[in-house]
Amino acid sequence: MNEQENHSRNDPFKDLVHCPEKAMEAIFECYEAELYQYVKKFISDDDLIKDVIQETLIALWKQKEKIVVLDTPFFYMLRIARYQALSIVREVQRKNTFPLEENYDVPGSDKADGKLRLQEIDRQIREITDTLTPREREIFIESRFLGLSNREIMERHNMAEQTVKNYLSRILKIVREGLKDLLTLFV
Amino acid sequence: MYSTRLSYKAMIYEREYVKALIRKKILETLSAQEWAEYQASQRIYTDEEFDEMFAETLLEIGDELPANPLGGWKPDFKRICKGDSPTEKRHRSQWWQVAAAFAIVGMVAVWAFYHYQIDQQQYNFLHGPCFGLTSDAEISLTESVVFLRWGDTLGRKIERGERGLVLRQGNIQVFKTDDGMFQLRQRNGEPGGGIVLETGTQQQALVEFSDGTRIRLNAQSTLQYAPEKPKTEQIQVQGEVYVQRPEQYHMDSLVIATNNGFVSSFSGDFALLSQKNVTRAAALSGELTLHANSRKETLQLDCYGAQGTVARFVNKTNGEEKDSLQYGVRKDPETLLSWTKAVRSYQDIPLREFVGQMSRWYGFQVKDYNCLPADKRITTTVCYRNDREAVFAAIREAGVVLYESKGMISFCPEDAEVTKKTEGRLAWWE
Fold it and tell me: Any CB–CB contact under 8 A between A180 and chain B?
């Protein structure tokens, strides 16, 4: 049995300290498909995806001592990839070369159906947010519909970032519960 | 597990259901309905929660993921182990190229600016009523004039000099701001049956609703506002308008009724034309939905220049009236707003369209548009204060003979005979 076959899904991370160069190659080999699919969530251009993966692995290398002791290094790696991908998206957006919105990957003829369906669900979500306080509603809209970051919301409402997180967590729970009630009502 | 078939009840409040959507998204098997649910699910979970589900799903899919998605590409491990970032390196190497390009672009820009200025002067009227105005200046709102109607027979003209509260009718108040904009406000009180704002020839007006929505009326257009009516009838327009809905999140959609349909939109700008048997809407930003009164289908206009038309026609075999919905993409959407400008520059547009726009502004009638050659186009610049003779001259310069009489014009050759009989260029067509 060769060395590569010895790696279980989490093993490559364990080697980051003792055999770091080999471990980096093994991590890529093991998780290339997952990394690719995850980054594709933010960016559709393959060349940019390659850049993100390269940057992610560099960040991983720089933090190898920290990563090796984590329980879920894979999740941590994706978080780094997310950060790298969003940095690139922001940079490209500043240069205004491609839209942030996600590619619509369903057949063209069904596009209208999908958009209508999304409008319908949005309407249901809006109905539920009627029960929130005006501030909660505002934060919800800014975060989930206008795409503002927690930091931007924090500045707008003059509150701590953690408070924004707490607000959002509570609001989203209410919205999910509300959707559940709304939909089970008609079953 | 929801791996095989997803319910249409959008159970996106359940993590397992969302993970099934994510799985389909990754494997590119999402249907349109599921795409909508996938998008919506991102709104009801925090980014961290959604990412966690995404990551879990990726691990669960495992071997089903396509191998070698990057076609055998490998990261540069030597550079990784040195901690050398590709983007930093690329930026550094690009720096000198950028500096060199900058110098060249600077020289070209100076040259282009000089020539652009010369070109602009052609549209900068040196004499006449539009002296000093450039082609991007809008008609000043201080010139806004409307005729306000309410009740069955009451009405009055709001002159350009009037300011402040100009009408209190039932539960509606109409203000005219110092800038000349009309603001419609709802107040407590008995419904008064609504109001109508009407522009005449060579008049325009801008109306603002309390939610920030603005509707600019071209000449010979009307806006009817009756807040007590059902939502699809509260705002009705006839003629030509430009609608601007601010870029903020609206809980309710804006609905504007036309003669044979209606449009709805949450935010964005669009141009809307409402005539007896035709509704035409074109998206300029945001998105809107075009509905025909007699059909269930709708048109989604969600990109710059997307245009939808509802046209009513009579079925020749059974005499039945039907509406057809048509989708198209406008090559030069900005020309739809030429009428908002003081100096209207038209670059190679269909002559029929030009004549249609001028007929709305000046109030002349065209005997039969079919007599205008469909392939004729026109490039010209017109000042909104010019008299109609200047427009007729521009039409003639485009190579079309027109005959004019008593407010009506014709392009039909047979009408040349009528003008001859009347010993002049003027005639009247019954």
Answer: yes
